[in-house]
Amino acid sequence: MSTHHRACATATVGFLALLVGGTSYPQRSTALAQLPIELTDGYIRVKLRVNDSEALDFIFDTGATRTIIDSVTAARIGLVAAERTRNNGQGRFVERIIEGVTLSAGRLVLEELELLQRSSERMELSLGVNIDGVIGADLLRDYVIEIHYDDRLLAIFDSGTYVYTGTGNRWDIEANQYFSLVTAEIGLGDGEILVGRYLIDTGAGLPLALNTPFVNDNNLLERIGARHLAYILRAQDVAMSSHPGRVPHFNLGGYQFDSLPVLLSQTEAGPLSPSAIAGIIGNRIWRRFNTVYDYGRDRIYLEPNEFFDDPFSIDCSGLSVTSTTGGTVVIRQVLEGSPSAKAGVMPDDEIISINGSSVADYSLSDIRRLLTQDSQIVNLTLKRNGTVKELSFRLRQLY
């Protein structure tokens, strides 16, 4: 497993004074809403109400420029979408838009919102949890957001009256009404430092991904990548090919991470293709800090939390798993040359049991976590075309 360390003196953990557990904190702004969060494979989920609905499951995604509502959820709660034709510079396409929507939580009320209606089925099956929508910019542009991962809490404050009282490191950002960028440094083994602008993206369940132009301009596939391994990611309905690797050093906001797992994009479309930024910093890094997002003042605050020193785990099997609408768990992808591939595991195999226990006893997160345990033996019972197979392999670091 990789290791990382602080490059500056550690601040006192617990800077977010959220009035938890009766602890006394300095006088501060009163939150409009304090939402419990659930972390699923690096994604943040919170509960919000849409119009007069019950509490719905939303992913909080700082990379989401628009609020999205799932198609099935929209129909269930009586929302009606209208078609709108747009042109993205590459051609015309039709979106389904729902206007005049209210979102609420606690004393927070967002009125007259425009929601983009899309299916969340693919993400639901990939994570194995319910997803009713995604929200980001509609919160961040007008409010200050504190995320306290230690206490699994997201707090929302009025931007105009917000006063920061914590002890975290302030980090200036480039923020607009849709997203924000930060400057960070990659240190290579030969001593070269690559400075780049990165998207802050809590909706990416990974540590770091580098965009295709940045990878190619700096020959990073040769310098830090594993060309023999290729992952297929999906975002914005685009399949993106990326190769894994490790960054010797990654420095942001005065904190350094060593031997950091990274994905090196080779796609020509989608969010990892633009040349305007070096890449995206995902929530497997952000979750290591209790964080304040204050886009109105072009700043964030970072303080290391209880997760800061956790190792960055990586898959040691070569398997990608997902659930199905029928409730089964299947193999989505098998990396060539990986331990699972050499054992004979194939895409579309259905997992019946793992190490003698029914797959029903595991969440998808549990399975993925199990597959990061280097040197452990995994015994799978699989169903392939109606035939049951027993296969075993030993996990190992792939890069």
Structural commentary:
With 399 residues, the chain is mainly β. The protein is 11% helix and 44% strand. The chain is globular. Residues 1-27 have low confidence and may be disordered. It is built from eight helices and 29 strands. A six-stranded mixed beta barrel has the order 15-16-21-17-20-19.
Largest sheet: 6 strands, mixed, barrel
Indicate the proportion of strand residues: 35-45%
Compute the number of strand runs: 29
- Using the CA coordinates, give the radius of gyration: 22 Å
Which features characterize this protein?
globular; six-stranded mixed β-barrel; 44% strand; 399 residues; 8 helices; disordered N terminus; 29 strands; mainly beta
Strands, helices and their partners?
Elements: E1 5-6, E2 33-36, E3 38-40, E4 43-50, E5 56-60, E6 68-70, H1 71-76, E7 82-87, E8 92-105, E9 108-118, H2 121-127, E10 133-135, H3 137-140, E11 143-148, E12 153-158, E13 169-172, E14 174-175, E15 180-187, E16 193-200, E17 208-210, H4 212-217, H5 220-223, E18 231-235, E19 238-252, E20 255-265, E21 279-281, H6 283-286, E22 289-294, E23 299-304, E24 319-323, E25 329-334, H7 339-343, E26 350-354, E27 357-358, H8 364-370, E28 377-384, E29 387-394
Parallel strand pairs: 5-10, 6-9, 16-21, 17-20
Antiparallel strand pairs: 1-20, 2-12, 3-4, 4-5, 4-8, 6-10, 7-8, 8-9, 11-12, 11-22, 13-23, 14-15, 15-16, 15-19, 17-21, 18-19, 19-20, 22-23, 24-25, 25-26, 26-27, 26-28, 28-29
